[in-house]
Write a structure and sequence with these properties.
The complex is a heterodimer. Chain A is mostly helical. Chain A has two domains: 2-39 and 161-389, no CATH class; 46-144, D-Maltodextrin-Binding Protein, domain 2 (3-Layer(aba) Sandwich). Helices cover 69% and strands 5% of the residues of chain A. In chain A, a hairpin with a 3-residue loop joins strand 3 and strand 4. The longest helix of chain A is centred in the middle third of the chain and has 35 residues, at 161-195. In chain B, helix 6 links the parallel strand 7 (151-153) and strand 8. In chain B, helix 4 packs across helix 5 (132-144). The radius of gyration of chain B is 24 Å and the shape is elongated. Chain B starts with a strand and ends with a helix. The interface between A and B is medium-sized, with 22 and 27 residues. Chain A: Pfam families: ABC2_membrane_3. Chain A: It comes from Thermostaphylospora chromogena. Chain A: This is ABC-2 type transport system permease protein.
């Protein structure tokens, strides 16, 4: 066990300080942070400056409406229309309301702001006309103070459907990206040791399972660190962008679940990658020997992607139980909506079972192939020599 | 005492080892010589547990050799292997720890070895930045860091400059004096002759000669009589056994393993001026050539 941890430690220190890892970490964190800011970008700014020329009554009405929309308005009084035009042109104000009848803007009036000002204008005009008709100003104000319509969704699960889909999309992408890069790193590490023959030296002092297990553990921890950093960047950026309040409830559970599924998926794919990697002796051959595995991963990714769009489809439901697809599809289904507990439990159990089988098979291939340097070892030979009991 | 008994190993049709046996005692340096493909590397890899023999036995101090025994061995494989991107000191220390040393013991052994092998200044360089000779030194350090109980080195001298050869030879002698059995294979027979107490000659998977260097010389090479005669009359050695050669300056040299020495001497005296008459021991190179031929 001690040796296993020594090997893992080496992987973490040596790979953790490579440029590739650090750059990948920063790039993926920045990417996720940018994605987290996108909703804010599309929803436009949340504060405007409005110039007023001879338009009393707009300011109090607009302020209260804007507050309900979580938008801040600043008001500037301007002397006349000419001053208002100049202020709009020079960008000192976003728009200007002149004489309670015109909105001046540089181009189109921003949609949300236009709606707020139009509504405020109607309120202000109505109040004034009612007052002019001789009604008590206090009663007018009271009458005009109408509570907004309460918004209620008939389907509570789909409360935040768009956000959930967004989060799930991101999750699929991050899972795929991390799994792909981790398994390539594992296979390349195996080939590095085999190709340089250092494995011959290593295996005289430690057992093959310690070398294999340590490598998978160490690189897995690095992948986990990467995952956590990316998630933290996403959450931090969402908080900074002010969208964190909008995150679907239970997102914490979704993230924890995703971590668990990532680990299962990683154990499955990384062990097979190590076994396949042990068949070849040169780095150039890594990609071709990994092709069946990366194809499988890509298929899982594409299906998971379709599950983002329609989490309830039959294909998604079935494959979210079937290893190794479940490792990518189930977390997406869980992020995208409600999944019965028994389905999650069954999916996790089957995946765990698959991981155990793969650990045995992958480690067996690794052990038999890793010392056979030279030409690529055929999988069939390894399996045959296993059944022959050598 | 390290014993190899009747090892056999077959790769498909080819019989790589056909009953190889050898013994190395504590404090003994055993030189393992043989042509390429004779079975040296296969034997050493089986000793280190990298390969499995089809049959035969390995014993260490009278007991079957175990994985735990081997963890204390020091090994330099024929194909050198180091982590190219790892720093020198880090790497030596890592191997020390894999062999079961504590962190502090590995660190101090590493520092000491690097000092001795002249690597201290390169301690924080990646291995790939070193010259081949220096990489070889790191490889040696990796084999020595845990003060191994046995040293098994496959062609340790190949590719070394003369200074590094001396440094390595000193290191082997030092380990050997500490009571450690040392086995190394080499094509440089002069080195084997200089360093080794015992020698094993392997040919086509079979040990053709093995034992203390002097014994092997006598047993395998036998004694040979050499006579050098100046101004000899032609044909003087016609009736004598052995091989007659003529040097550039006209001296006649007779080398023979048979015949009556006294009779040969009197023939030589009659033929001319005898400059040399005596018994000779063949060099390892000659024995090797003969054994392998």
């Amino acid at each position: 066990m001690n040796n296993l941890w020594l090997v893992a430690q080496r992987e973490i220190t040596v790979h953790g300080r490579t440029k590739g890892f650090l750059v990948g970490l920063v790039v993926s964190a920045v990417l996720v942070a940018v994605v987290a800011f996108i909703p804010k970008f599309f929803s436009g700014p949340d504060s405007y400056t409005v110039g007023l020329v001879n338009s009393p009554g707009i300011q109090p009405a607009a302020t209260s409406i804007a507050a309900a929309e979580e938008i801040t308005l600043d008001f500037t009084d301007l002397p006349d229309e000419r001053a208002a035009r100049t202020a709009v042109e020079e960008g000192d104000v976003d728009v200007a309301v002149v004489d309670g009848s015109t909105i001046l803007a540089d181009g189109r009036v921003p949609g949300q702001l236009g709606a707020i000002l139009q509504s405020a204008h109607r309120t202000a005009q109505a109040e004034e006309r009612l007052r002019e008709a001789g009604l008590d100003p206090a009663r007018v104000t009271e009458a005009m103070n109408v509570p907004p319509l309460a918004e209620v969704s008939v389907n509570p699960a789909d409360d935040n459907a768009a956000l959930r889909v967004g989060a799930a999309t991101l999750l699929v992408f991050v899972l795929f990206f991390l799994l792909m890069s981790s398994i390539t790193t594992v296979a390349m590490g195996v080939v590095e040791e085999k190709g340089s023959r250092i494995v011959e030296l290593l295996l005289t002092s430690i057992r093959p399972w310690q070398l294999l297990g340590g490598k998978i553990l160490g690189l897995g921890l690095l992948g986990l660190i990467n995952f956590v950093v990316v998630l933290a960047a996403g959450v931090a950026a969402s908080a900074a962008a002010g969208t964190i309040d909008d995150l679907p409830p239970g997102i914490g559970g979704t993230i924890a679940g995703a971590l668990g599924w990532f680990l299962l998926g990683y154990a499955f794919f990384a062990t097979l990658a190590a076994g396949l990697g042990a068949l070849v002796s040169r780095q150039e051959e890594v990609n071709s020997v990994l092709t069946p595995l990366t194809t499988l991963l890509l298929a899982a990714y594409l299906i998971a992607f379709s599950a983002v769009i329609d989490p309830g489809s039959t294909l998604a439901r079935i494959l979210s139980l079937v290893p190794p697809f479940s490792s990518m599809i189930m977390p997406v289904r869980m992020a995208g909506g409600q999944v019965p507990v028994w389905e999650v439990a069954l999916g996790a159990f089957l995946m765990l079972l698959a991981v155990l089988v793969v650990l045995r098979v992958g480690a067996g291939i690794y052990q038999r192939a890793v010392l056979r340097t030279g030409a690529r070892v055929r999988l069939g030979e390894v399996v045959r020599s296993a059944s022959a009991g050598s | 005492m390290l014993e190899v008994l009747e090892l056999r190993k077959r790769y498909g049709e080819k019989e790589a080892l056909r009953g190889v046996s050898l013994t190395v005692r504590p404090g003994e340096i055993f030189g393992f010589v043989g042509a390429n493909g004779a079975g040296k590397t296969t034997t050493m890899r089986i000793l280190m547990g990298v390969l499995r023999a089809d049959s035969g036995e390995l014993r260490w101090n009278g007991r079957p050799l175990s994985f735990e025994d081997r963890r204390k061995f020091g090994y330099m494989p024929e194909e050198r292997g180091l982590y190219q991107k790892m720093k020198v000191a880090e790497q030596i220390e890592y191997f020390g720890r894999l062999h079961g040393m504590s962190k502090s013991a590995a660190a101090s052994a590493t520092a000491e070895l690097m000092e001795r092998l002249g690597l201290t200044e390169r301690r924080n360089d990646a291995v790939e930045a070193l010259s081949l000779g220096n990489q070889q030194r790191v490889q040696l350090a990796v084999a020595l860091v845990h003060e191994p109980s046995v040293l098994i080195l496959d062609e340790p001298f190949s590719g070394l400059d003369p200074l590094a050869v001396d440094a390595l030879a000193d290191a082997l002698i030092e380990r050997c004096r500490a009571g450690v059995p040392v086995i190394f294979s080499s094509h440089q027979l002069d080195l084997v002759e200089r360093l080794c107490d015992s020698v094993g000659i392997i040919s086509a998977g079979r040990m053709v000669a093995s034992g203390p260097v002097d014994e092997v010389r006598v047993k395998e090479g036998g004694r040979r009589l050499k006579v050098v005669v100046r101004d000899a009359v032609p044909g003087w050695a016609d009736g004598l056994p052995g091989e007659l050669t003529v040097t550039d300056d006209g001296r006649q040299v007779l080398v023979t393993e048979q015949g009556d020495p006294q009779a040969i001497l009197s023939s030589a005296v009659r033929a001319g001026t005898v400059e040399h008459f005596g018994w000779e021991q063949p060099s390892l190179t000659e024995i090797f050539r003969e054994a392998v031929a």
